[in-house]
Each structure stands twice: as structure tokens, then as C-alpha cells.
Fold Complement C1q tumor necrosis factor- protein 5.
Amino acid sequence: ETGVRGLTGDKGYPGEKGDRGQPGQCAVAPKSAFSVKLSQSHTFPLNVGDAVLFDTIILNEQGDYNTETGRFTCKVPGVYYFAVHATVYRASLQFDLMKNGHAVASYFQFYGNWPKPASLSGGSLLHLIPGDQVWVQIALSEYNGFYSSTKTDSTFTGFLVYSDWKNSAVFA
């Protein structure tokens, strides 16, 4: 038979300090961000299904947004935030935020023959994997009132909120 447990003994002396470990790799957080706007010389009207070509780069250090196609292409998997700020003038505007050919959010601003431009803004969080594409597209051809001038802009912005990369404890 097992007897009664004895009392805990005194704490021992600390051991010798171990050898220094090998240097590790410094973790660098992944980055992805862009902000683009329509130039004043942009031609309209756009057709339904056409990506809006925001052709003036404000920021695009990683090159994830393509001004020729109007599309953002994901390189870093994770959650992104996209925002569209549109100046609406001389026509109503309806556009969709698209992901891989599917509308994930739709926005509409009626133009009531106002003497000055109005604005329409919207944004959405999207989970993306490498190769996914996101863009802004005209939803109805008669509602194509994107506008840009010297004093008012229409912009498209996106950035990585957090990464899904799990190859390092820093990204877990």
C-alpha cells in the first residue's frame, strides 16, 4: 500500500546559467495598402461591369493595385478594409464593391439636379487569400455619376487589417 504523502522539502539552489541560444529571425509584419483617385481627365460614361479605373496613385508601395485594370490583387492572406469615397455630380451613381466577380456591397446616390456635387461613401471588411481581386464597378449604366475636379476627388482605398500568415508566432 502507498503511504501518506510526505511534507514538501526545502527549495533547492538555482542551477547554472545555460549557453546563449542562436539568434532568431526578426519578424517583419506583412504590409498591403493602397489609395488611388480618379484624375480630372477621366473619361465617362462607364458601362455596367466595367471596373472603375482609379488612375492616379496616392499610395501603392507594394504594387497590389493595378491602374490599368482598376483591380487590387491580394498577395498577403488576411482581413482587409476597402473604402470608396465618390463625388457625385450631374448624374446619379450606383456602384458595387466587387470580390472575384461577385458584388459584396452596393452603394447608391440619387442626383436631384443639385447645383453642387454631393458625396457617397462606403466601405467593407473582406477576408482575402492570395490571388483574390477586389475592384469598384458601375452597377447600372445610367447611374455613372463619378466625378473629379481640382477641389473634389473620388477615391478607392484598401489596406490589410491583419494577416492570416501562421509561419511565425508573431503572425499567429
The CA atoms of residues 66 and 72 lie 6 Å apart.
